[in-house]
Q: What sequence folds into this?
């Protein structure tokens, strides 16, 4: 089974600050996804990233968000100027399973914007 | 509009009983998946059923899919207190590739009382 780690596990930041969330798949993957889950709500798709390019993004993923693969292994989600409503759990996921249809989720980063 | 919706929103049963959760969706799908989330934790993939399958089993889990009704059910037999969690259905929509985001429903909160 694949493994995905995310750092930090919890990030507290002031409104307007930039945050960078990191995702590290243990094995080398070209395809990954970011999702978020506001407390008590459902999981929402943010963006998919394939081979160093954004493959698809949702309406949530506005200009405040960006994704990168800065060093060939880590995947990062950057929020440039955080807002209170950005407080949520952020999950990265990689495709897995027989035909890559399953999504293996990392443990998540809890972002709290004050 | 929501792609997936689970019912009931909350379910409370005694240990040893069976738990049934339902999921309805709106558009054609490639596959439907069920995930589990313990409070404040990450998402664990339980089972994937493809659009050309009608029923699938994994341990104490049984999933059915009725594409004509655009609905799925998750049955957990002989429930245990450790099954207490939120359960989400998620649909994979792409007909071209299995590499695709999944769209989550709002989830069912299951409580198993010892």
A:
């Amino acid at each position: 089974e694949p493994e995905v780690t995310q750092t930090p596990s919890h990030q507290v930041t002031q409104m307007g600050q930039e945050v960078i969330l990191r995702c590290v798949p243990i094995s080398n993957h070209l395809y990954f996804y970011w999702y978020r889950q506001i407390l008590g709500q459902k999981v929402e798709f943010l963006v998919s990233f394939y081979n160093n390019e954004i493959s698809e993004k949702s309406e949530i993923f506005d200009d405040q968000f960006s994704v990168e693969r800065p060093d060939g292994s880590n995947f990062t989600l950057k929020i440039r100027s955080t807002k209170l409503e950005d407080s949520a759990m952020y999950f990265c996921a990689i495709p897995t399973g027989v035909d890559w249809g399953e999504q293996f989720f990392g443990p998540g980063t809890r972002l709290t914007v004050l | 509009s929501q792609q997936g919706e689970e019912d009931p929103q909350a379910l409370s049963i005694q240990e040893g009983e069976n738990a049934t959760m339902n999921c309805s969706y709106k558009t054609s799908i490639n596959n439907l998946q069920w995930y589990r989330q313990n409070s404040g934790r990450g998402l664990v993939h339980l089972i994937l059923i493809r659009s050309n399958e009608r029923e699938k089993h994994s341990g104490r889990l049984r999933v059915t899919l009725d594409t004509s009704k655009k609905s799925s059910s998750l049955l957990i037999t002989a429930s245990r207190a450790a099954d207490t969690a939120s359960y989400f259905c998620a649909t994979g929509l792409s007909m071209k590739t299995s590499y695709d985001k999944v769209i989550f429903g709002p989830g069912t909160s299951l409580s198993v009382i010892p």
Q: What stands out?
A: The mean pLDDT of chain A is 89.
